[in-house]
Design goal:
The structure is a homodimer.
Chain A: E1 4-7, H1 11-19, E2 27-32, H2 39-42, E3 47-51, H3 60-72, E4 80-85, H4 87-99, E5 105-110, H5 113-119, E6 124-129, E7 132-139, E8 144-147, H6 157-173, H7 182-188, H8 200-217, H9 232-245, H10 255-274, H11 279-292, H12 302-310, E9 321-328, E10 331-338, H13 340-352
Parallel strand pairs in A: 1-8, 2-3, 2-4, 4-5, 5-8
Antiparallel strand pairs in A: 6-7, 9-10
Helix pairs in contact in A: 3-4, 4-5, 5-6, 5-8, 6-7, 6-8, 6-10, 9-10, 9-12, 10-11, 10-13
Chain lengths: 353, 353
């Protein structure tokens, strides 16, 4: 099946040609409770499930609610599940669709910037299990991803910044394609003026294009795709320490924040281990101090963070810590094994800022 | 990765070259409690999980036990899970492997005839959910399937007959390849003399070859693979009525029995709707009366059985009943929609035998 990824200004006229291929009784939606749909868009669906989602509810119980919903509405293998929400919701809905009757079609309608530029492209689906982020999941591509930027108008600022961090990561991976480089275009974007949509859609489109290109070359992350994990080895540990300790704070500690902190730690190692120029590290640090604030962890968390990193699913071997580092902008280096003491040094650097 | 399917007379010397490619600390096994492994085979694994399995325990709880086991032993994406048991176990272990960290390698070592000729080939994995058989699952091929016929020496007779029913189904799908036809070779096999292994291994090999050929042509069951569902639309309803009503009897009501009864109902419809010769229907009926016994359901179950068929995941549209029927041996016809009254007629025929 041909896959579609599009940015649109009218959600109804964008979705209906995708959904018209399915029996109308087999077109159902799962939607985040924080998102409203217009009556005309709502009318596209024969059944609606509304879920309250956040990282702490990204568990098997929520996946089961989606399975139950599909069974109750007798959705068949010819049906389609449309997922409207942030990355937590689209990840879980994608997994539920990938495994319901061994796989039905699904469409992503991401409503947060993070989901638009990251989660909803690339076919990674899953949920948190055993205290580990996304430890259970499947690779399964949506039949379409529909980006509707007006959803961002009601997005809280910290959610916007969370998504922007993944865009910054994408910018670090790309040195070609546009002039100026994506990284420089992102740095020029005025984060104090996000209300005006102008200038954002082209950046979103560029980030999705970079990600799609990388994913197409390596859909199941055997090699090149690992470049997208920049910032995520350290970032996931920050997220997991909160999951383990039950400290999910309300909105201050979103995925993109963790990735931003993770990128700083990993750029620090990129400078010391691969001779990466210091400039992007300094630029990211400035953005952090100006917009994101410092991480809420402290040096005493260091040993627990390192223990969590040793369990990361990105590791090839038990207890080894595997990162993506950067030689320079546009030149990621995957499968870099670092020692616990190097990890400790990077955490110390981050916490000292 | 090259996939391997082999029949072997020495399990250790067959498994070790497959497993030697993996870090020894990352080679783990999940085994059915009814199966014993020799010390030399056991020594191939760094960790062991023993599960009691039967159809009533093919649920999310058992899948979670396997996920927990993999997490506890810090299995990484480079690890491999070996599944030793019947189809219930290999289906669940395959699903757990397919979804753990978005997919690790697994090897099937089927220990029942049914698992050897059916479940362990073809990459269908999953578990029962919401009262429906295998309603959650994934298509994911094992890296190897290792058939060790001596496991069958301790198999109870009804388990043997259950597997033989799937072999009979395979025989109905194939008219070429060998002389005499697979179907005739199966009818010549002496079910009163199963203790002597002679003659069985070539039949197992033929059945696996037929299935592998069909699966290779259509791995995710978009078309041709549906031929393998012969007997399963009616058969699954028989299994589900017991799951819903909590009547799993101990060993009398195995998957292959349900498929055999389902094949009789579907061959009855094949005769009346597609002009299939009556001979295979008569031959199957004789085998049923001589070896399998009549189904334990009765006419008063008919309406509930039909309601369950309308929810079958093989249906393209809600409430439609979709079967594979037979025009003649070797010529299955997929996607045959039958009416509830045709289904009722076929049930009546079966229950009248």
């Amino acid at each position: 099946m041909q896959r579609v990824s599009m940015i649109c200004t009218d959600l109804h006229s964008c979705l209906s040609p995708i959904l018209v291929k399915y029996d109308p009784s087999q077109v159902v939606v799962v939607r985040d409770s924080k998102v409203e749909l217009s009556p005309s868009v709502s009318a596209l669906f024969s059944a609606h499930l509304v879920l309250e989602t956040d990282e702490s509810r990204k568990g098997i119980e929520s996946v089961e609610r989606i399975w139950d919903f599909l069974l109750e509405h007798h959705v068949t293998r010819s049906g389609v599940l449309v997922a409207v929400g942030g990355g937590v919701l689209t990840d879980m809905a994608g997994f539920a669709a990938a495994t319901y009757k061994r796989g039905i079609a699904y469409v992503n309608v991401p409503t947060t910037l993070l989901a638009m530029v990251d989660a909803s492209t690339g076919g990674k689906t899953g949920f948190n299990y055993g205290g580990l982020k996304n430890s259970i999941g499947a690779f399964c591509q949506p039949v379409a991803t529909v980006i509707y930027p007006p959803f961002l108008k009601t997005l809280p600022p910290h959610e916007f910044l969370s998504g922007f961090a993944e865009m910054l990561k994408t910018g670090l991976l790309e040195s070609e394609g546009t002039t100026p480089r994506l990284w420089d275009r992102l740095l020029q974007y005025d984060l104090d003026q996000v209300e005006s949509d102008e200038g954002l859609s082209p950046l979103i489109a560029s980030c999705i294009a970079v990600k799609e290109r990388i994913v197409a070359a390596d859909p199941t992350e055997k090699g090149l795709r690992k470049a997208l994990n920049l910032g995520h080895t350290f970032g996931h540990a920050l997220e997991e320490i909160q999951m383990v300790n039950g400290q999910w704070s309300n909105g201050k500690w979103l995925h993109g924040y963790a990735v931003l902190y993770g990128m700083i730690a990993e750029l620090y190692l990129s400078v010391s281990l691969l001779g990466c120029p210091r400039e992007p590290l300094q630029q990211l640090t400035q953005l952090m101090l100006h917009y994101y604030g410092k991480p809420q962890c402290k040096c005493s968390d260091r040993e627990q963070l390192i223990a969590l990193m040793r369990q990361d699913k990105k590791n090839e071997r038990t207890a080894e810590i595997n990162c993506t580092l950067l030689r320079r902008i546009g030149e990621p280096v995957i499968n870099q094994v670092i020692t616990p003491s190097q990890a400790a040094e990077a955490w110390d650097y981050l916490f000292s800022l």
